[in-house]
Design a protein that fits this description.
single chain
C-alpha cells in the first residue's frame, strides 16, 4: 500500500495529476485545492496518499494535508458519498470550511459542491456533526461555529458572477463560502462578490 509520495508535478488532467517520482509517473486523483498546492510547489512536493484496491484497478488519491486525507476518509464512510463526490466536496470546501458549513447547517452552501443534492446535504449535516465539532483551525484554536449562511440565491449569483469573470467553479464556490460565512445572512450580492474577489486575490 502507498501512503506517501514525494515528487514533482508532471501534468494535470481532469480530476487529478501525474506526479513524477524519480522518473516514475504516479496517476493521482486529487481535489482542486491539492492541485493548486502542487502547482505552487517550487520543486518536489510531498503528497499523502489513500490507496483503494478494486478488482479491476488500484486507484491512488492524493492530498496536500493530513486533515484533507482524513476528511476524505470520513466522507467516503457516508452512504451515497463515493470517492469522486468526496473529491468534489473537497474541491469546494477545505476541511475547516466544510466543518463550518456542517456546524451552521448550511445545506444550501453544501449543495454548491458538485454531486451534492438536498438529501445528501441533509445527510452530511447529520452524520458529520460530531466530526465537525472536533475540527480545529491551523493555529490549533477551535474554529468558531459558522454564522448563518447568506441567502442561497445571492450566493449562487455571486458564484456565477465569478465564473463569468474567469474563475473556475470550485475556486469561486470556496471564495463565496468563506465570504458569506463572515458576512452572515442578508449579505448583498455586490458585497458578496467584492469580498469573494478579495479572497481569490490572496
Amino acid at each position: 500500500m502507498i501512503g506517501k509520495l514525494t515528487g514533482r508535478l508532471d501534468s494535470v488532467h481532469e480530476g487529478g495529476c501525474i506526479l513524477d517520482v524519480n522518473g516514475v509517473g504516479y496517476l493521482l486523483s486529487c481535489s482542486t485545492k491539492t492541485l493548486d498546492r502542487l502547482r505552487d510547489a517550487p520543486a518536489a512536493a510531498q503528497v499523502l496518499v489513500e490507496t483503494h484496491v478494486r478488482q479491476d484497478a488500484i486507484v491512488l488519491f492524493g492530498f496536500a494535508t493530513r486533515q484533507e486525507r482524513e476528511t476524505f476518509v470520513k466522507l467516503t464512510s457516508i452512504q451515497g458519498v463515493g470517492p469522486k463526490v468526496a473529491l468534489d466536496i473537497l474541491s469546494a470546501f477545505g476541511p475547516e470550511e466544510l466543518a463550518g458549513a456542517v456546524r451552521g447547517a448550511d445545506r444550501a452552501g453544501l449543495r454548491q459542491a458538485n454531486g451534492v443534492g438536498a438529501k445528501l446535504a441533509d445527510r452530511l449535516v447529520t452524520e458529520l456533526r460530531d466530526w465537525a465539532g472536533g475540527i480545529q483551525a491551523p493555529s490549533g484554536v477551535a474554529v468558531a461555529p459558522a454564522p448563518v449562511a447568506a441567502p442561497a440565491g445571492a450566493a449562487a449569483d455571486a458564484v456565477s458572477a465569478l465564473i463569468n469573470l474567469g474563475w473556475k467553479r470550485p475556486e469561486a464556490q470556496a471564495a463565496v463560502n468563506r465570504a458569506k460565512a463572515r458576512m452572515g445572512e442578508g449579505a448583498a450580492l455586490e458585497a458578496l462578490i467584492r469580498d469573494s474577489l478579495k479572497e481569490l486575490a490572496r
